[in-house]
Design brief:
The strands form two sheets. Strands 5-4-3-6-7-8 form a six-stranded mixed β-sheet, sandwiched between helices. Strands 1-2 form a two-stranded antiparallel ribbon. 32% of the residues lie in helices and 26% in strands. It has a single domain, classed as Rossmann fold (3-Layer(aba) Sandwich). The protein is an alpha/beta fold.
Length: 200
C-alpha cells in the first residue's frame, strides 16, 4: 500500500474512532502536549482494529511469521487479530520485575519460531524492546515489529523490520516551557484514564 494511502487510511480510522484528542495533556514522561492518541478508542472498535491489523498482517506476511506476540494490555487484542488474519497463534507478554517482560499462563516459545511482535502505540520503544528481549530469551526469532501508531516519527531504535499504520510527531514541552500552561489551559484527563497522565 502506498505511504500516503496507508497514512490517510490510518488517520481516518483514528479520527472515526474518536482516538485523536486535542487539549492539554501531561504525558507519562512528564512532558506536556496538546495531542493525545487514545489507543483504546481504536481497540474498542472491531472494524477499525480489523482494518489496521490487516495492514500489519499484509506488511509482514511475506516474512512468514509463525507466531504473533504482544505486550499487555493493548497488545493482547492486536496480537490476537493479527494472528487470526495470518492464520497463526498468538502469545502475550506481561510485566515482570522492574522494566522486564515475561511469558506466563503456560505460554511457550518453540526454539527458532519466527515471531512477529505487535503493539498499539509506541512512544519511547521501551515496551517493544522489553517484549522482543523476552521473546528472544525464550528462543524465538523476532522477524519484525508492527504497531498501530508510532509517536517517535521513526525514532524507535528497533533493529528488525518495523511498520506503523500511523506515524506522527506531536510536539511536547517540559512543564516550565509549556505554552498551554502559559495560556492557562487546564490539564485534561482522557476518558478512562486512572490519572491525569496520558501515554506519550
Amino acid at each position: 500500500m502506498p505511504e500516503v494511502d496507508r497514512q490517510g487510511i490510518a488517520w481516518q480510522a483514528f479520527e472515526s474512532a474518536g482516538a485523536l484528542l486535542r487539549g492539554h495533556f501531561v504525558y507519562t514522561s512528564g512532558r506536556h502536549g496538546a495531542d493525545y492518541l487514545e489507543k483504546f478508542r481504536i481497540l474498542e472498535d472491531p472494524r477499525a482494529t480489523t482494518a489496521l491489523a490487516a495492514m500489519i498482517a499484509a506488511r509482514f506476511q511475506p516474512l512468514a511469521p509463525e507466531l504473533v506476540a504482544g505486550p499487555t494490555t493493548g497488545g493482547i487484542i492486536l496480537a490476537y487479530e493479527v494472528a487470526r488474519q495470518l492464520g497463526v497463534d498468538a502469545v502475550y507478554v506481561e510485566r515482570g520485575e522492574g522494566t522486564g517482560r515475561v511469558l506466563r499462563r503456560g505460554f511457550e516459545i518453540v526454539p527458532g519460531v519466527r515471531v512477529l511482535v505487535v503493539d498499539d502505540v509506541v512512544t519511547t520503544g521501551g515496551s517493544l524492546l522489553a517484549t522482543t528481549a523476552c521473546i528472544t530469551c525464550a528462543g524465538g526469532d523476532v522477524i519484525g515489529v508492527g504497531v498501530l501508531a508510532d509517536r517517535t516519527a521513526g525514532r524507535t531504535g528497533i533493529e528488525v523490520p518495523f511498520f506503523a499504520c500511523l506515524t506522527v510527531d506531536f510536539p511536547s514541552y517540559v512543564p516550565e516551557a509549556c505554552p498551554l500552561c502559559v495560556a492557562g489551559i487546564p490539564v485534561a484527563t482522557p476518558r478512562g484514564s486512572r490519572k491525569k497522565l496520558a501515554t506519550a
